[in-house]
Amino acid sequence: MIIERLSREHRNIETLLGILEHELEIFDRGDRPDYEVIRGIISYFQLYPELYHHPLEDLVFARLRLRDPAAAAKVGNLALEHQKGVERLRRVAQAVDAVLADREILRQDVDRIVRDFIESERRHIMMEDRDFFPAALKALQPQDWTEIASASTSQEDPLFSEAAEETFDELRARILGLEQEAEADRR
């Protein structure tokens, strides 16, 4: 089902935000984070959510506006929220590029920019999970879901599917490594 897919993608995004936060903590200590992982996360956010996740949410939201305008109004301007996320991600990419190029940028500015992205993404996901998805499940009719499914692409998430794209191999290995470390710590 579409909402299950979007919710699963939100959990995947949460995993990446946790890893980005972990790398930021390493940076904040004055140590060198894994910039390949950070760049992989940035690449992921530039590609998958923009090309697949957000357009699918936009299709659902358009139907919600038709079926329950009041619920859609409570959700707010989803397209604007997504655009703000793109802008915050662009600032993250610029800050990381500045660090890697040894350009003048304050450590606390990098921290603020990356933390703003992480916290904003989490707030956005929480709002969608709390307000948008339940409203869509309540208001949309079976034919709405059928039409949304036929209008959307069934592209698999390149990072969390079996057919992971080469670009994300290193990041995927890091995620799996962190998961294994966390599992070992729980034993």
Please explain how this structure is put together:
81% of the residues lie in helices and 0% in strands. With 187 residues, it is mainly α. α2 crosses α6, α3 packs antiparallel against α5 and α4 runs antiparallel to α5. The mean pLDDT is 88.
Number of helices: 7
How many angstroms separate the termini? 35 Å
The SSE order reads HHHHHHH
If classified by CATH, what would the architecture be?
Up-down Bundle
CATH topology: Four Helix Bundle (Hemerythrin (Met), subunit A)
What integer value in Å does the Rg equal?
18 Å
Task: Please report which band the strand proportion falls in: under 5%, 5-15%, 15-25%, 25-35%, 35-45% or over 45%.
Answer: under 5%
Helix content: over 70%
Strand elements, count: 0
Query: What does the overall shape look like?
Result: elongated
Main CATH class: Mainly Alpha
**How many separate structural domains?**
1
User: Which blocks of ≥5 consecutive residues have pLDDT under 50?
Assistant: none
Multimerization state: single chain
